[in-house]
Amino acid sequence: MSKSKSHTTSGMLRSLGWPLFWGALLSMGFFKLIQDGPLASEFTQRYFLGHPVAIATACMFFVGLAALLLRFFSVFGELTTLNEVALPENADGGDSVNDSYTLISQLEEMPRRLKKGYMWRRLHAVLCAVKRNGTADNMDAHLRNLAEDDLDSQQDGYGLARIIIWATPMLGFLGTVIGITAALGDMATQQLGDDLQGAMQGLLSGLYVAFDTTALALTLSIGLMFTQFLVDRVDSHLLTCVSVNCLDQLGSRFATEPKNQASELSREDIATALSESQAKLFASAMESVQENWEEWIASTGSGMRDIVAAASQGLVDSQQVVLQQLVDHQSQMHKTVEATSDVIRLETALNNNLRQLSEAGHFEQAVMSLSAAVQLLAARTNAVESPEFQNGQDRAA
User: Fold this and answer.
1) pTM score, two decimals?
2) Distance between CA atoms of residues 186 and 199, nearest Å
């Protein structure tokens, strides 16, 4: 029990550890190439180094790619060594159930690299079942069950890649949200009033970063999806070959009791049933991926509409603030012009008043001179009419 548990734990660590290890190496090599190597360009640095989310997306892509490549090399290696896992030719009359002990021993003497494949595990499981049950009557049904179990195991082997394919677009969408939030957060009212062009340039830069992360994530996730499809096709072909080889080696090896011909399944029927089962499981997996993809597209479209609406509303609000400030400046200019006109009118009035005061001063002086002249004439007239003046005139005569 503890040995089985330890084997399961070590297998889980290998399935996660090796993709992480090779993914980290691929990421470091790729970033080295786009910084100082032949891939260095403004385009690659903009999309892969423009934002921390873009860097994380690229690293996640290489981890998923490493998992798929490791799976492909394993499957391709098993395809090339499939014929090496073979049982010896059986007797003309068929082997007995007791011969399963010898066959199991021969399988266990094979190299360790062959024991990791589908072919060895299925042959070993069937022979152990024959040994345990003491009969080979239900061997066909057992082979079919083992084929279905291997198919389930095959689909489980793409769990890490499938999670990364699902999470990569989510990470790009997260970069979009962060970029737009940062762009709108930097648009302060004071900045809009003082430097409108700089504020708009900052907003556009934030939007470039935000949408670049989404474009990168979608592109990398699509590449992983096609890679997974190709590797899965090769893996399915391997399972079909294993099923056919197992039927060839075990189908008529053991002597069994006579059966009703109507209930006996031929090799072609079993292969057809296995192929149909594989096709159904693969179709179910693809439908699940398609449903997840459609749900993500729907949620992303809704989220993008909300973000674009928020960004548009932010731009409208910013423009309204700028227009209001322009209106306030224009009102202040009108007030300044009106105040200047009032000053000019006041200055004109003051000049007129000064001129009038100046003219009033000259008139007063003329009146005073005229008054003095009138007084002088009156004095002379009084002097002429007086008796003393007349007596003086008579004496003189």
Assistant:
1) 0.62
2) 8
